[in-house]
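Annex B. Sample input.
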Amino acid sequence: MKTNKTKFTFTIIVLLISVTAFAQGPPGGGQGGRSGRQGGGDQQRHKPDASEILKLLDTNNDDKIDKEEAAKDERGKISKDFDIIDSDEDGFIDLEELEASLDSSKPRKVSAEKLLKEVDQDENGLLNELEVAAKDKRDLMEHFSEIDENGDGQLDLEELKSFYSKGDKKKKDRKDKD
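Annex B, continued. Sample output.
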């Protein structure tokens, strides 16, 4: 009789612990894969596209986001990454730059000047293979000898511009064929 009472008590305790644990839901306050929507199912959460973000943040309607407007981004991601997203370094993020930053499958437009500043550790205006490897710039590491047109073992601004403009031309040629 005592063992039945113990088994019953143990079962009730385990049941109460299980119910309490599952009632709390998944960690982080989520809705268990339902994306917070009633009816759940296979619906995925709507991710805003670049034009929606631009429309939301562009308060002066000039079709560009400046640093002040970017600071109003609730998540703070655009403000934090402003200089990275602003690939042409004009102080504004336009629709094309925003689209490139949101679409990880597309390569971002590269500013040769910005890249040189970022990677050039000895600030001599040239990149050697060690500097490129130290910053883990794989596209430069893979194509170093191709980019180094004069064969001096270093990449200068003109060589970088030439390399990246070839990439832009190839992208345009592919778009024209489509």
